[in-house]
Amino acid sequence: MTDHQQLDERIGRITRTPFRSRFHLRDSDLDYIAARDMDTMKRHAEDFIATRLAPRNPPRDGKQTPWKGHPVFLAQHATATCCRTCLQSSHGIAAGRALTAAEQSEVVAVICRWIELELASAPARRSVPRPPTAASRRSQRTVRQPALF
How many CA atoms lie within 13 A of 67 on its CB side? Predict the structure, then answer.
């Protein structure tokens, strides 16, 4: 079994729960990823995990991962990598000690794989600009100034 298959099985098991199954990338998340790339998402995940999850006693454990604002945050909630309690119950990584480098890499791999799966299942994105809305058309109108003479 390949690494991707193992990750897919683990993610599938976790995301089948009613709570975790409701998380999906939003349009704003898809736009954010499209403006960057998966290498950037991986670096962000590595940074977030190292600073917010890896310490022995993370500050505000259980509340350290915002619910929105970055695709990695959403992925953390979807994959139960958002706090040490979820890491312990869903991934078997014990709380009360600092995460090893290998455990941090494992968590980042789960997060990145979930994002990849979400990107693959996202509806095709329009590459052409959307037609202007009524509000934007109104703001684009020019007001004719009356001739002075």
Answer: 4
| Nearest Cα residue to 83 out of 66, 110, 68, 64 | 64
Concatenate the DSSP letters of all residues of the chain into one string.
--HHHHHHHHHHHHHTSHHHHT----HHHHHHHHHS-HHHHHHHHHHHIIIIISSSS-TTTTTSS-SSSSHHHHHHHHTT-SSHHHHHHHH---SSSPPPHHHHHHHHHHHHHHHHHHHHHSPPPP-SPPPPPHHHHHHHPPPPPPP--
pLDDT tens, residue by residue, 115-138: 999 999 988 765 544 556 666 555
Distance of CA 27 to the CA centre of its chain: 12
Q: Name the pLDDT band for 76 (thresholds 50, 70, 90).
A: very high
More confident residue, 125 or 31: 31
